Amino acid sequence: MGGSELECVIKIPTPSCPKCGKEGNETIARLINRDEVSCNFCSHAIDLTSENWTAYLKEAINAVGKLGTAYRKIP
Fold first, then answer.
1. Does an H or E element contain 37, and which?
2. Distances from the Cα of 42 to the Cαs of 1, 20, 23, 64, in angstroms?
3. How many domains does the chain have?
4. 47 contacts 35 by C-beta, under 8 angstroms
5. What is the pLDDT of residue 71?
6. Whole-angstrom Cα distance, residue 66 to residue 23?
7. Is there a contact between 37 and 17 (Cβ–Cβ < 8 Å)?
8. Whole-angstrom distance, CA of residue 25 vs CA of residue 72
């Protein structure tokens, strides 16, 4: 299982919904190259364009890439 396959499985928290205040989870793959995602609870759009959010997502992608590298080394 490579990094991109892990991105399809591993979920991370999304920003809190501005309407209902709840925090959902989405797979990393679903969040890549998206400007918004729908709240899991009320379907309101959640903005994913803030600098803090994009930095967080980039860190998650890098971590999954490292995890995939380690996983491929397991006999």
1. strand 36-38
2. 33, 7, 11, 29
3. 1
4. yes
5. 72
6. 26
7. no
8. 26
3-state secondary structure of 31: helix
Averaged pLDDT, groups of 10, the chain, 75 residues long? 77 96 96 95 97 96 86 73
pLDDT recorded at residue 69: 77
**Residue-range definition of the domain harbouring residue 44:** 3-72
14-38 in b/e form (b: 16+ CB < 10 A) is: bbebeeeeeebebebbebeeeeebe
Determine if residue 51 is left, alpha or beta; phi over 0 gives left, psi from -120 to 50 gives alpha, anything else beta. Answer: alpha
C-alpha distances in Å from residue 32, one per residue of 1, 19, 20, 74: 19, 23, 23, 27
The DSSP 8-state label assigned to residue 16 in this structure reads P
